[in-house]
Design a protein that fits this description.
Blueprint: H1 3-17, H2 23-38, E1 49-55, E2 59-66, E3 71-75, E4 86-87, E5 93-94, H3 96-105, E6 115-119, E7 123-128, E8 137-140, H4 144-147, H5 158-184, H6 193-215, H7 223-229, H8 233-247, H9 258-261, H10 263-266, H11 288-300, H12 309-320, H13 322-325, H14 335-358, H15 363-378, E9 382-384, H16 391-411, H17 422-425, E10 433-437, H18 440-465, E11 480-482, H19 490-493, E12 501-504, H20 516-525, H21 536-546, E13 552-558, H22 566-576, E14 580-590, E15 600-608, E16 615-619, E17 622-626, E18 656-657, E19 668-669, H23 671-680, E20 688-692, H24 694-699, E21 703-706, H25 713-717, H26 720-734, H27 739-743, E22 761-765, E23 767-768, E24 778-780, E25 785-786, E26 790-794, H28 798-804, H29 807-816, E27 818-820, E28 823-825, H30 828-832, H31 842-860, H32 867-870, H33 878-894, H34 904-922
Parallel strand pairs: 3-6, 9-10, 9-12, 10-11, 12-13, 14-16, 20-25
Antiparallel strand pairs: 1-2, 2-3, 4-5, 6-7, 7-8, 13-15, 14-15, 16-17, 18-26, 19-21, 20-21, 22-24, 22-26, 23-28, 27-28
Helix pairs in contact: 1-2, 5-6, 5-11, 5-12, 6-18, 12-16, 12-18, 14-15, 14-16, 15-16, 16-18, 28-31, 29-34, 31-33
Pfam family, one: MmeI_C
Domain MmeI-like C-terminal: 842-919
Protein name: site-specific DNA-methyltransferase (adenine-specific)
Length: 923
């Protein structure tokens, strides 16, 4: 439905309903008419549901519910005041909004409304449940002719459209991959650098032409297809060379006889922008199969105008990037995840500002404010210093242009063709977007994605005015820079005084996996950053770039930079420079479309020198307003837990790692090796002990070791098979590059690091799955040799066990521990030695000892189950879960915390206050 028809129908709707409005008799016809006549829904009877039953203490009925857009409607008669409470059938007094909220709470989560609309025929109240405490948007029936667009959310199937864009974009990526593979087979030297760059650039050009012909950019549909169709495979190469040359030549500079020689070629417009300027590109000959793939599958059978430039740019780049192609599938940053970065950084605030403008009643004032808002949008600058294929920049551009189009509708309430050209109307430009990317091909893709986005948004603006503005020629676009972002001086790309927002998704490379060049990149920034994850380099560069400005930054990062020993390295520097964390997404899975790529656990951190008055922590579906966000992404003071060699309180017991054999595997035995050795040399049985680490403990796996520290030389001489093993141990140690290991070659019968206690001990796995609520710890006999995959607490008591297995200790561990992939990595230096223990009364201590024993007793009920079985959230026995819950309550009481209502965040905040006090006492 066009704008003129909508306005006319809205005016008629006002006339039809200005003196009507009985709740029972008129509600359904009112909404069906609104949806059909004003909002253009062809079959509204199939779009909205009326009188849907909802179960409260009695059967109630929702007046209206729109499934596709998640809208709930509570309709009242024209004689009702939407602000006043109305008595319900159960005697409660509720306003229409409260009544709708009550219905919403009774629905399954998947069906709860995003929007609640209350209406009394004279006025609409719109409540956005994403912001439940904000004031509703109010629209009076008499103003619907100019305010109808504010009801478009009722029919806006943006999520459905987004899913379609995603599928179209992925299909487009698959087509590009097929074209790439066919082209690559035709190159004489496909592995050469020139051929690699040529095929990438050729694919960019082909994609642009396919998009341009479907989107009408070339002037009419199918121009690219119709031109190439006249050539057989043998002549197609030359046809493309000629086409690219024409597209890069201004019409006035072309061969004056071109139209006579090749009229279809002459019809192509001048493109500009550098897209077709490189004449040195190598184009291979075509085959019949390649010609058919391009003309039939890629052109005839596919509509490129429907791709999402945000998704497709990343898919396109990954499809043609040899590294990502080897992963077996395409991958991209989802639009949902991009919005986790840009929404709280700037987009939510801009949307709120526009919504406030829309409430202005006076036309002149409304136009003035909308114009000022458009100017504001046009003066914002955005910088992604790890932009890849430009998806963050592209999605931001699309969002800004959509806001601008909304503002344009307010500025030009009566649009007509005589308002001017596109450059007179549109002010937001791709020139506002800057990026750095190390891969030359990704730079080309980023530019192309932005051009496609610009084209699509021009079409949306044209629809407002029924205009016929030309998109071509492209404007030269140079704001995506090729280079190493950790080496480039960012001010040379965009001076910091001209920048508003920095954002992006820098590379995820852990310090152990950094190349020598990448380690050098980090040390080039600061010697203090040694041992830090690669992504931290962008945090440091952003910190330096933002200095003395109001710039705000938001990066996606692996969650490792907020855990373990990474925190003291990076965040000590950031906090010392007065950086504030303004919002953060706690750890979540950053999914990828690549078939072989592991899920990465990420955080998003928004930071700046400016301190926002409202700070937000996003944790799953919860959003918490807090006073401060610490580097651990919790509501706590900016305290950093540093590595320490001994417990923070001198009276605490010391834990240590298990023993290290450094034996090349020759002192370690499995079941079969143990049995064979004892059978052949019975004397060895006295020197074989069970050997245990984290995995052995958790999975009830049995391994053994030769423990020869008390074995006399005369005894060893009687064990030739053991002596053979010791020779191999000696050889293994001599082959080591470490001198300390080599020195142990003289004592092959001994472990290089013997930390085995002479008393029973508590074993704490160094690595444990994050799926478990509790790290499974266990008491172990002194005759079991602990290896370095475990921490051991000699002579541990039931009280020690109760505290360490409690939710208080687990909450501390989850906050400060490092990770091994996504698993917990329990560290003595970070977790245990810094942990603030409670000061219980004797009665409280006895209670904890009792609940700790109950945990052990509950485990004993299942002797055939491993700790992995017992602590799997899906199979944990009821008795064990209850025992842990009782222990949690007993420990919380010892800390002085109320059992009811204390969340894990509360527990961590309490522990950090205790830790802060302990640190102060040390000084």
């Amino acid at each position: 439905m066009d704008v003129t028809t909508q306005k006319r129908n809205a005016k008629q709707f006002i006339e039809d309903w200005k003196d009507r409005g009985r709740e029972k008799q008129d509600s359904q016809s009112f909404w069906l008419s609104l949806l059909r006549e004003v909002l253009g829904v062809e079959n509204p009877e199939n779009f909205i549901k009326f009188e849907e039953k909802v179960k409260l203490s009695h059967d109630s009925f929702i007046d209206g519910y729109i499934e596709q857009t998640h809208v709930m409607i509570e309709q009242k008669g024209s004689n009702k005041d939407l602000d006043k409470a109305i008595k319900q059938s159960d005697g409660r007094l509720l306003t229409p909004f409260q009544q709708a909220q009550r219905y919403s709470a009774a629905l399954p989560y998947s069906r709860r409304p995003r929007w609640i609309v209350t209406c009394n025929f004279r006025e609409f109240r719109i409540y956005d449940m994403e912001h439940p405490n904000s004031e509703p948007v109010k629209i009076e029936l008499k103003d619907l002719e100019t305010s109808y667009y504010q009801l478009e959310f009722l029919v806006d199937k943006s999520n459905e459209h987004l899913e379609k864009e995603k599928q179209v974009s992925l299909s487009a990526g698959e087509l590009v991959g097929q074209i790439y593979d066919e082209l690559l087979d035709q190159y004489k030297n496909p592995d050469s650098e020139h051929s690699q760059k040529s095929i990438n650039q050729l694919c960019v050009r082909i994609v642009f032409c396919l998009y341009a012909e479907d989107a009408g950019i070339f002037g009419k549909k199918n121009m690219f297809h119709d031109y190439l169709e006249e050539f057989d495979a043998r002549h197609m190469r030359k046809a493309l060379i000629n086409l690219f040359k024409v597209l890069d030549t201004k019409v006035k500079d072309r061969d004056p006889y071109l139209e006579d020689d090749e009229p279809k070629l002459a019809q192509f417009p001048y493109v500009n922008g550098g897209m077709f300027s490189d004449e040195n590109i190598e184009i291979p000959p075509f085959t019949d199969e390649l010609r058919d793939l391009l003309l039939s599958k890629a052109s005839d059978e596919f509509d490129w105008s429907e791709i999402s430039p945000t998704i497709f740019g990343a898919v396109f780049e990954s499809t043609l990037n040899p590294d990502t192609r080897r992963q077996g599938g395409m991958h991209y940053t989802s639009i949902e995840n991009i919005h986790k970065v840009i929404d709280p950084l700037f987009l939510d605030e801009l949307k709120d500002e526009l919504n406030e403008i829309k409430k202005v009643k006076q036309p002149a004032k409304l136009k003035k404010k909308a114009s000022a808002f458009q100017d504001k949008l046009a003066n914002l600058t955005f910088f992604d210093p790890a932009c890849g294929s430009g998806n963050f920049l592209t999605e931001t551009y699309l969002q800004l242009r959509r806001l601008e189009n909304d503002a344009i509708k307010l500025i030009y309430p009566n649009p007509s063709l005589d308002v001017g050209q596109a450059q007179d109307i549109i002010k937001v430009s791709i020139q506002q977007f800057y990026g750095i990317e190390i891969n030359d091909f990704a730079v080309s893709v980023a530019k192309t994605a932005l051009w496609i986005a610009e084209s699509q948004m021009l079409e949306e603006t044209k629809d407002i005015f029924y205009a016929d503005w030309d998109f071509l020629p492209l404007k030269t676009y140079t704001n995506i820079h090729e280079g190493n972002a950790l080496r480039i001086y960012w001010n040379d790309v965009l001076p910091n005084y001209a920048c508003h927002y920095v954002m992006g998704n820098p590379p995820f490379i852990g310090t152990k996996y950094e190349s020598e060049d990448q380690k050098e990149d980090i040390s080039h920034l600061s010697k203090k950053l040694k041992g830090i994850d690669y992504v931290s380099g962008w945090y440091y560069k952003a910190m330096m770039y933002m200095k003395d400005t109001k710039i705000e930054t938001s990066f996606v990062s692996t969650n490792s930079i907020t855990q373990g020993q990474q925190v003291p390295i990076l965040w000590s520097i950031m906090l010392k420079n007065k950086i504030n964390i303004n919002y953060a997404y706690r750890s979540f899975v950053w999914n990828s479309e690549a078939k072989t790529q592991a899920h990465v656990h990420c955080v998003i951190i928004g930071f700046s020198y400016l301190k926002r008055s409202t700070k937000l922590i996003f944790d799953g579906q919860l959003v918490n307003k807090v006073d401060n966000i610490s580097p651990y992404l919790i509501s706590a003071p900016n305290i950093i837990v540093t590595s320490r060699s001994r417990p923070i309180k001198a009276d605490r017991k010391i834990i240590r790692k298990g023993s290290q054999p450094t034996d090349g595997g020759n002192l370690i035995l499995n079941d079969i090796e143990k049995s064979e050795l004892i059978t052949q040399e019975p004397i060895t049985e006295a020197y074989i002990k069970r050997y245990m680490g984290a995995s052995d403990l958790i999975n009830n796996r049995y391994r053994y070791c030769l423990w020869l520290k008390d074995c006399r030389p005369a005894e060893l001489k009687k064990m030739p098979l053991v002596l053979e093993r010791l020779k191999r141990v000696q050889a293994s140690r001599l082959a080591s590059k470490k001198k300390s290991t080599q020195s142990w070659s003289d004592m092959p019968a001994l472990f290089t690091e013997d930390r085995q206690p002479n008393v029973d001990y508590l074993m704490i796995p160094v690595v444990s799955s994050q799926q478990r609520k509790y790290i499974p710890m266990a008491f172990v006999s002194k005759d079991v040799i602990a290896n370095t995959n475990s921490q051991i607490l000699p002579d541990a008591s039931l009280y020690d066990f109760g505290i360490l297995e409690s939710n208080m200790h687990m909450a501390w561990m989850r906050t400060v521990a490092g990770r091994m992939k996504s698993d917990y990595a329990y560290s003595a230096r970070i977790v245990y030695n810094n942990f603030p223990w409670p000061s219980p009364t004797e009665k409280q201590k006895e209670k904890i000892e009792k609940t700790a024993q109950a945990i052990l007793d509950a485990r004993a009920l299942y002797p055939d189950s491993s700790l992995a079985d017992l602590y799997d959230p899906l199979t944990m026995p009821r008795e064990l879960l209850k025992a842990h819950q009782d222990n949690d309550r007993a420990v919380m009481e010892a800390y002085g915390l109320p059992v009811k209502g204390t969340t894990e965040s509360d527990a961590v905040a309490h522990l950090f206050k205790m830790y802060e006090k302990l640190i102060a006492e040390e000084k």
